[in-house]
Amino acid sequence: MVSIKGGHKRLVTGAAAAGLALGAFALSGTANGATETAEVAGAAQPAKPSKPAIILEHGAFADGSSWNGVIADLRADGYPVVAAANPLRGPASDAAALRTVLDHVKGPKIVVGHSYGGNVISEATTDAPEVKALVYVAAFLPAPGESALELTNTYPGSTLPGALDPVTYQQADGSTATDLYIRQDKFHHQFAADVPTGQAVLMAAEQRPIAQAALEEKATTAAWKTKPSWDIITTEDLNIPPAVQRFMARRAHAHTTEVAASHSVAVSHPHLVARVIERAARATVR
């Protein structure tokens, strides 16, 4: 286990960062795991195999932009990246949505999940041989039969219930359902305490709700049982208590890194998160 108090800063040039933080990349050439042929001195020379694609799955109360700093680092280091859109409706249906992305991006892949996104990647990648490693970022690693809500309550420490703003609505079939937001006046402290205030205010306004039923839905499979896993544990997390994170990481025999960070570690420590992802890629894709 690696224990880190904070991530190192790195300079990213404007050319590397501009436009790349959107997470899009061309699904051709080296971006899909193929190799290129380079013309050197008039003769065709085989280029090195491309790096694996990195697929990022955000969690509840966030969106794909939460990965922007991580994406900039990964792209600067030559990794193609997709930040998938997580519907946040339930592990089974969200995993089906993620599998469409995994099937579309060819070649070896490293799949990364933040928070509830851990439930989704665990479900989506069980029978995905091109997925070489999983990286959990302040995330859930449920076993079959467990839900996010159940795991959160395994140990004390989460203050999320008191910060939630539930919105109940009527569905097309006449039944009612509830979406959960974090109250904007509590978002900074609850979700992103180590993120600058101005940025946290924007994150609060942009948050995507999760269906309450998604947190209660039980997992049916666990890809971490068969795939090598890395886990970033956030020791100042108010959503998923650190004790819960450590319990899940130990059970999964994950390579762990602990950092004094809030639940929004990908925003507050993007360089650290990118380094762990790249470590997983180097260890599993050659």
Topology:
Layout: E1 2-4, H1 14-17, E2 37-40, E3 43-46, E4 53-57, H2 68-76, E5 81-84, H3 91-104, E6 109-114, H4 117-124, E7 131-137, H5 148-152, E8 164-170, E9 176-182, H6 184-191, H7 197-206, E10 210-211, H8 212-216, E11 229-234, H9 242-251, E12 255-259, H10 265-268, H11 270-284
Parallel strand pairs: 1-12, 4-5, 4-6, 6-7, 7-11, 11-12
Antiparallel strand pairs: 2-3, 8-9, 9-10
Helix pairs in contact: 2-11, 3-4, 6-7
Question: Strand order of the main beta sheet, please?
Answer: 1-12-11-7-6-4-5
Largest sheet: 7 strands, parallel
Helix content: 25-40%
The CATH topology, please?
Rossmann fold
Derived structural class: alpha/beta
Provide the β-strand percentage band. Answer: 15-25%
Record field, number of beta strands: 12
**What do we call the CATH homologous superfamily?**
Alpha/Beta hydrolase fold, catalytic domain
Radius of gyration: 19 Å
Residue ranges: pLDDT <50 for 5 or more in a row? 5-43
Mean pLDDT, all residues:
88
* Tally of separate helices: 11
Element-level helix/strand string:
EHEEEHEHEHEHEEHHEHEHEHH
Short summary:
The protein is α/β, with parallel strands linked by helices and 286 residues long.
